[in-house]
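User: Continuing from earlier, I have the next pair ready.

Assistant: Great, send them over.

User: Here they are, in order.

Assistant: Folding the first of the pair now:
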Amino acid sequence: MSHDESLLEQLPPEKLLDTRNTRVITPAIRMMEEAATVERYLEHERANRDRAGIIRYLTDRIDDIYEENGEILPGEQSQEQEMEGEHEGDIVPVDEAETVSAMSPPEELLAYIHNLGSEPDKEIASSFDPPMWDEL
């Protein structure tokens, strides 16, 4: 009988998680060595008391177990596979790629800007009025 099996036998989720005393719950969670065991307690807690602190402690323990064993978390594994799948279709053959030319502004806009530069500087400088106090 493994350590987790004896823990499940002596302190099933209903018994361990029924108490309000976290001093009893947290050491028992730390003793758990298998993610499947912790997940059973997590399911029970979510279905019954749904205490955020206990749920966080259980999920952290699952993460720690996967880390200790050098395994990838199930959620992270599917994310990695999705990312790999996204990059497979990103490569476009050169013969199918469209060439994009740099966008040039319309001729009218260029002429307008050019005319602005040729206007005398006096007109521009003389049109400056200080802002009114209510505009600040």
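And the other member of the pair:
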Amino acid sequence: MPTQRRRIGFLPRSEVQNIIDKICIINKLSQSKVTGILVEEALRSRGVLNTSIKKLSYEFYSNNGDALSIPNKKYNNEIPMVEDNNHLDDESINDEVQMINDYIEFKFFKNIMNRNKSRIKE
């Protein structure tokens, strides 16, 4: 019976592929399953996906830079807290504006240097 879902192609960097391979071997899961778990976990952490359905969650741990995974076979029905970072204090806003102004000045200076450099070569 055909499914309504579409296949999503994913070609990760070699470093990411190695991590996924290690997770697959250790947990005896397919690459498709691991990729799906990682995508759902990323969406939940960003607050895009909020499900209260109880699902088996896997927690992936890193040990000394090596990708190791330990399946956490507990049921998880918690909805992650999404912090509201839209309200910044005045000092943070002033720092941000100053950084943007410094960047604009740097880009302006860089353009002037590039123009002068091309004139010197001529």
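Worth noting for the second one:
The first helix runs from residue 14 to 27. The radius of gyration is 23 Å.
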